Amino acid sequence: MLWQGEYIGTVTVRPPQPESSVALYRDPTVYSLSQFCVEPRFKGQGLGRRLHDHALAVARERGARTIALDTARPATALIRLYEAWGYAV
Fold first, then answer.
1. pTM of the shown model
2. How far is CA 43 from CA 15, 32, 38, 59, in A?
3. Cα–Cα distance between 64 and 73 in angstroms, integer?
4. What's the CA gap between 15 and 81, in Å, rounded?
5. pLDDT digits (tens, 9 = 90+) for 47-73
6. Once rounded to an integer, what is the mean pLDDT over residues 31-56?
7. What is the CATH number of the domain that holds 36?
8. Total domains in the fold of the chain
9. Which H or E run includes 11?
10. Alpha helices in 1-89 (DSSP H)
């Protein structure tokens, strides 16, 4: 996400990964979101939700029926955010 020429947020939409050692990621209907981040000074303005919603729409356009998320356990704030958005952890 760009604002006045500056990157203030990111999210990566990953398609199915046939070569993955993780069965979930090999499923052709599973897309994953990763590298999700909003620049700290821009947090609390709904930008994360906008990034998420756009990424979800892109994944669905490409055939996703399931969305997987991957994050480190210490990222408790991000995990809580995902749960608030309806994801199961």
1. 0.84
2. 27, 22, 6, 24
3. 25
4. 22
5. 999 999 999 999 999 999 999 998 887
6. 93
7. 3.40.630.30
8. 1
9. strand 9-14
10. 23-26, 47-61, 76-84
DSSP element (H, E) containing 66: strand 66-69
For residue 53, is it within any domain? yes
- Nearest 10 degrees: Cα torsion 18, 89, 70, 56: 80
Residue 83 contacts residue 89 (beta carbons within 8 Å): yes
Cβ count near 56 (within 10 Å): 17
Instruction: Please check whether residue 73 lies inside any domain of the structure.
Output: yes
Residue 89 lies in a domain: no
Task: Write the CA distances from 78 to 18, 37, 60, 69, 75, integer angstroms.
Answer: 27, 9, 22, 11, 5
For residue 33, with 0-12 CB atoms within 10 Å meaning exposed, 13-18 middle and 19 or more buried, which class applies? buried
Residue-range definition of the domain harbouring residue 76: 2-84
Residue 47: φ, ψ to 5°: -70, -35
